[in-house]
From TrEMBL, chain A:
This is Putative D,D-dipeptide transport system permease protein DdpC. The keyword Glycoprotein does not apply. The keyword Transmembrane applies. Residues 85-274 form the ABC transmembrane type-1 domain. Keywords: Cell membrane, Membrane, Transmembrane, Transmembrane helix, Transport. The lineage of its organism: unclassified sequences, metagenomes, ecological metagenomes. One of its GO terms (biological process) is transmembrane transport. SUPFAM superfamilies: MetI-like. GO terms for cellular component: plasma membrane.
From TrEMBL, chain B:
Keywords: Cell membrane, Membrane, Transmembrane, Transmembrane helix, Transport. Signal peptide: none annotated. It is found in: Cell membrane. Residues 96-305 form the ABC transmembrane type-1 domain. It is a multi-pass membrane protein. PROSITE patterns: ABC_TM1 (PS50928). This is Glutathione transport system permease protein GsiC. InterPro entries: BPD_transp_1_N (IPR045621), MetI-like (IPR000515), MetI-like_sf (IPR035906). The chain crosses the membrane at residues 9-30, 102-123, 135-158, 178-197, 236-262, 282-308.
Amino acid sequence: MKKQKTKFFGTPRLLRVFARHKLGIVGLIALSAFIAIAIFAPVLVRFDPYTMDLEHAFLPAGSGGHLLGTDNFGRDTLSRLAYGARISLLIGIVVVALAAVVGTILGLLSGYYGGWVDFTVMRLVEVFYSFPFLILVIAVMAILGPSIFNVMWVLGLVHWPSYARLVRAQVLSLKNIEYIQAARTTGCGDARILFRHIMPNTITPIIVQATLGIPGAILSSAALGFLGFGVQQPTPEWGSMVNEGKDYILLNSNMILWPGLCIFLVVLSFNFIGDALRDTLDPRLSKQLK
Amino acid sequence: MGKYLARRILTTIPVLVGISFIVFALVSFAPGDSISLMLSNETVNVENVEKLKTELGLDRPWYIQYVMYMEKLLKGDMGRSVQFSRPVAEMIGEKIGNTFKLTIFSCLVSLCIAIPLGVLAAARRRSVFDYSATAIALVGVSMPSFYLGLLLILFFGLKLGWLPIRGLPTYDSTLFKQIRFLILPSITLGSSMAGILTRLTRATMIEALGQDFARTARAKGQSEIGVLFKHAFPNAFLPILTTFGMQFGSLLGGAVIIETIFSLPGLGMLAMNAVKFRDLPLIQGTVLIFAVCFVAVMLIVDILYVIIDPRIRYD
């Protein structure tokens, strides 16, 4: 598997192809900045994101050392945004990782064994696809109670079907190729064939799908936060910050402008990177669109 | 064709059963006791609780409860709302029309942006149209809909005062008045679909324009407009239709957010209300109706597919 990885990412040609995507590079730089802010948030900001100071609520940007002003409780907006980057990035990555693992395993089993396994998994996929997923997630969150942990696993469980479909299609086209038969004749068991011989070949599309899936996960978790069913106050989460700010939209529009802009920029940079990755790893498509 | 249609309609049955089971499980396996919630306003005594449990069949095993649930559901009985003590089906019936209006308008908005822009972008590569198509596509898919909604409210509603930002006028008001109330919500809800479809229209049109039939059409002297709309677009249309159908689900999901922001009395707001008060029968009912609407749209798209392109026969 290590060899495969170097094959996909180590060759300078692919790096050069990726580098040709200016937007991909822009996305990469912007995302690195957000990741750095998330990691070094305690060092970068002057104020604690949780400390309330009601005397200094709704300060405009720049006054009293608060670069982006303060919110309705007098908390520093910039600090809350910086700490919020941690939450959004974490949720996006964990949700997609969970969905990709569950989807990949079910897709591998479904494509490889066929029969009733395939039938069951595919019907499950169809059922999950037919829910407008945000509604299902809100209902589940309402019943389980909102918390960051629940947000992650519920969103993860809702997003697995697209990975399962993708992997299943790959497995179907791979499983009758000669090298798999060769592996079988040399006495490899099913598990070895699946994970050593088939799975490495499905990694590329999974990576592309995951990169394009993270922004979706961030958007849904922000939407949940906005509706009040995601990460709860006082945790600084961008979606719930917009929710708090919407009541003061005319009084202090900064409260919605900045967190919303952060969500937009993070999602946009993931989309830039995802597009560039897809074009790099799927040259057939990129040639057509050039 | 009849055979295909019959089979396609039959395949929705296991999906509908799966949906009904998930909706049932959502409430039945939920932690917490739904009975104590229902009785919270009355004096709770053990006798009352036991009586209600037997009445609702809650003392039976879950599979029997599911069969009971299905029996009632097939008769159109979705239970009674705890919060309003009214039949859920009746409440959904009152609100569903507004959600339909909102989603249909949003679809129109996104198609009116996506198709002309995508076609122009493909026809004039690297032109202003092409770049604005790419920009709209990226902004559309990256913008959180609640953020866009609030921005539109702030600028067009509050600062400029051009458009109404809350609620819907009554049914008997003029069409023009109703449309005015729907403009901002529809733009907000349709923006993400517009982004996705613009991008797809551009890509499929580029592919179609590069095919042999497009070259042949040009060679025989067909005008460029003719090549675009008579030859390329019909070929590009099928993937657009498929994606449209699949995106309709997220449009319905987005309706919850948009109806909340713009205070539109629709199914989404009803669902949010139910969820806030943990009104379990109403949660079940609204989730179920949303899913059934989506399944119906997917079915219609698949049927349109065969009508539009007679070459397609699924075996």
